């Protein structure tokens, strides 16, 4: 939630501050040059633009009704054109900040909360019995018999270790997915070691790094073996292609020779037919 909230707060601060400065400069082009008054104006701009997101619009200030400019040489008086432009800017600001950004934040939080609840429900129901009470005793008897078989026999040979569990997946029959999983584990292990090296930590980080390095080395060794097998397969495939290419070339040369022989036979036949006619 914090990771989503910090970028949102940054965007909301930029939008709110930018709108406040633009609105104030359009509405009050002539302000008091006193530094104290300028600082107060900055805080007033931020306060007005922030609370306008939550419904406190201050329309009397935007239209110029809250400022008395009847005194001569008065400052901070609203501009006549600014009194028309500022409410339009307010409408755009409320549309972007309140209707769009706030609802987007609510949607992100709702999605995360719903995903967490969905995961918890799926995890709970994955262990429930598919049989309704009072026949649920049958399911418990099946589970007890399965546990006894797993304890009394080799679970791997009988395949009881691959019980239908949505949170346990085996890729023993799919080598490609197994290689992808090993590659992902290697990448995550390298990223973990890099974070340990970059973070200022003590002996615990060094011990964790020492424990994780053998796993990374084993993953690297397996990856090298896979690369060697892949290179061997590529070489054998290329050799097969070269052999097929050579055979195709030989067939082409034999076809050319057969064509020449055909032409010679046709010429010989024509000559024999001419002599027979004579």
* Net shape: flat
Distance between the termini: 107 Å
Q: Which runs of at least 5 residues are low in confidence (pLDDT < 50)?
A: 157-163
Beta content: under 5%
Instruction: Give the averaged pLDDT, no decimals.
Output: 76
- Number of DSSP-assigned strands: 0
Number of helical segments with 4 or more residues: 8
Order of helices and strands: HHHHHHHH
Largest sheet: none
Could you give a short description of this structure?
The protein is mainly alpha-helical and 278 residues long.
Set out the fold topology:
Blueprint: H1 2-27, H2 35-52, H3 59-62, H4 82-126, H5 136-152, H6 155-158, H7 175-198, H8 203-277
Helix pairs in contact: 1-2, 1-4, 7-8
Question: What can you tell me about this protein's structure?
Answer:
Residues 157-163 have low confidence and may be disordered. The chain has helices at 2-27, 35-52, 59-62, 82-126, 136-152, 155-158, 175-198, 203-277. It has 278 residues and is mostly helical. 77% of the residues lie in helices and 0% in strands. The chain is flat. The longest helix has 75 residues, at 203-277. It has a domain at 2-108. It starts with a helix and ends with a helix. It contains 8 helices and no strands. This is Ion_trans domain-containing protein. It comes from Macrostomum lignano.
């Amino acid at each position: 939630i914090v990771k989503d909230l910090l970028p949102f707060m940054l965007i909301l601060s930029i939008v709110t501050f930018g709108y406040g400065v633009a609105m104030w400069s359009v509405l009050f082009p002539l302000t008091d040059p006193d530094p104290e008054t300028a600082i107060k104006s900055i805080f007033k701009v931020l306060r007005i633009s922030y609370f306008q997101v939550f419904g406190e619009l201050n329309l009397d200030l935007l239209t110029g009704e809250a400022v008395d400019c009847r005194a001569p040489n008065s400052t901070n008086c609203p501009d006549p054109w600014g009194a028309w432009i500022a409410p339009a800017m307010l409408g755009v600001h409320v549309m972007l900040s309140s209707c769009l950004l706030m609802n987007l934040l609510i949607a992100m939080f709702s999605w995360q909360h719903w995903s967490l609840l969905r995961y918890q429900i799926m995890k709970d129901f994955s262990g429930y019995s598919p049989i309704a009470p009072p026949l649920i005793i049958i399911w418990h008897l099946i589970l007890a018999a399965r546990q006894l078989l797993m304890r009394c026999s080799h679970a791997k040979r009988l395949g009881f270790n691959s019980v239908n569990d949505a949170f346990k997946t085996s890729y023993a029959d799919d080598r490609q997915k197994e290689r992808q999983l090993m590659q992902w584990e290697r990448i995550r292990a390298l990223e973990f070691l890099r974070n340990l090296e970059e973070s200022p930590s003590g002996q615990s980080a060094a011990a964790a790094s020492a424990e994780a390095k053998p796993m990374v080395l084993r993953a690297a060794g397996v990856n090298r073996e896979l690369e060697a097998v892949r290179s061997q397969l590529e070489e054998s495939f290329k050799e097969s292609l070269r052999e097929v290419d050579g055979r195709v070339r030989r067939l082409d040369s034999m076809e050319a020779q057969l064509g020449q022989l055909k032409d010679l036979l046709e010429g010989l036949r024509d000559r024999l037919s001419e002599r027979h006619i004579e």
